[in-house]
Amino acid sequence: MPLGHIMRLDLERIAQEYVVPCLHDIGFCYLDNFLGEVVGDCVLERVKRMHRDGELADGQLAGPSRGVAKRHLRGDQIKWIGGTEEGCEAINFLLTLIDRLVMYCGSRLGKYYVKERSKAMVACYPGNGTGYVRHVDNPNGDGRCITCIYYLNKNWDSKLHGGILRIFPEGKSYVADVEPIFDRLLFFWSDRRNPHEVQPSYATRYAMTVWYFDAEERAEAKKKFRNLT
Fold this sequence. Notes:
The chain is α+β, with helices and mostly antiparallel strands.
């Protein structure tokens, strides 16, 4: 059986039997060993090179402080990429697989109809105790419905290195701590159901995030923005 066919069947099964039920039941889920060591290493090396070459810039705040970098609130350095840039073949492969996974979730995502996503945001916390205070990705209906984060940190020990993503599921009495370990792929709803924070990191911490848009909410948000401007 061709590899592509096996991969399609696997992704379809994972999407429908694991990702969709988890999103509906608890609002988030993660997959470990998503790409495997070899391809994951290629993604990591490309991200490290961006960092080494000074391609990452301070992350900006959205909302009332839009476009402002405030290191005590958000300490990451970021770069937006499409995946088609030179040398980004492994990143493009990763994004293609994530796209397929979300596509296979299809109409099972409840009210959402996903047909586009953001570019990928490569992020680095430089390991000097920086983090990202508790926030909601999409508090005001900008169209983002699913947040998807791929982690790239080998030999990560949260007791030593910190850097945990802590989710505070709305209306629940518990928090969920996700360690940013190498080759882990995390999904969660982007709206007010999942406030979250990145706890202070004491080692260099890499991740890549994409956001998937609900078509109707995204169109409405663009219309509002056009009316404002």
